[in-house]
Amino acid sequence: MALTRTFIPLVTFGAVVPVSGWEAALMYGVSVDTLRRRIAHGHLPASRFGGRLIRVRIEDLEGLFLPIPTVRPIHRRLG
What we know:
Elements: E1 11-12, E2 15-16, E3 19-20, H1 21-28, H2 32-40, E4 47-49, E5 53-56, H3 58-64
Antiparallel strand pairs: 1-2, 3-5, 4-5
């Protein structure tokens, strides 16, 4: 049986509340270990709350995972 959780980002006064590593991994389809490696190497800023709880901002995640540009479509010559 698979465990499922739904994720709904909280918005407070126009600013998005930082999300947990698990929620961020779920949003971007990567593993929590991948996010932890990015944090450890300094590629992803994060905040620690208490002893174990790590939070990342969605804005920082969007900057980390950039879309790959696609190639223009090739137009076939008719005639």
